[in-house]
Amino acid sequence: MFGLLAGLFLAAALCFASVMVTRTWVHLKESQLIQVTGSARKNVRSDLCVWNGVLQTEGKTLEEARAKFEGDQRRLVAFLTAKGFAKHTLSPVHVRDITPRAKGSPDADEDQVPQRIGYQLLQGVQITSERVEDLPNLAAECLKLLADGVVVQTSGIQYIYTKLPEARLTMMGEATDDARRRAEEIAGRGGRAVRELRTARMGVVQVNPLHGTATSWEGNNDQSTLEKTISATVSAEFSLR
Predict the structure, then answer these.
(1) Which of 4, 80, 106, 145 is the most buried (most CB within 10 A)?
(2) Structural domains for the chain
């Protein structure tokens, strides 16, 4: 009986060993791959910028505010034309009531309806230009309009790189080449060689201020600086021999 049990255990052990060897062989055969991540970086200069401003006028009556607005608008348009920015976009005029701020007064009645003391007219102004060096200076030069009583508030400047779609395609290839070089370095140290590319997946492209390295899941798209750095990554899988 003891010999029979020993034989059964031995047979079971041999079967188990055979299965493990087979699984190991299959695993080794199916794992003749190497996964690496390649990257590419490129410094670029914005080729388009957008300036946004707001023309603001006030008056005690709507007629007074409108008359001043028309005069200020003519001065602003003449100013922009003289600076070489005749092509601009004016948004619809927005009218807003001017009411006194009595909220902090101890005698103020919270249920009291605020009394209008004047009108404020607002109009957005936008300029889109390829003159990325000149347009940013316009914000500072608009301060000169204050001498004529023309109030123009700058709400921001956007710096845009319009060739980003083409750059993505180029950098995808560069990142893939970088991934292959890394794979060859790793495989070579193990006495292996890289064969063909099996799969490749491009990561999110990041556009940051010059030399920036910040990342986000949805991808950064910096529009605050003239000079930018574009970075891209590719996760690639190569077969080995």
Answers:
(1) 80
(2) 33-45+163-240 (3.30.110), 49-99+115-158 (3.30.70.360)
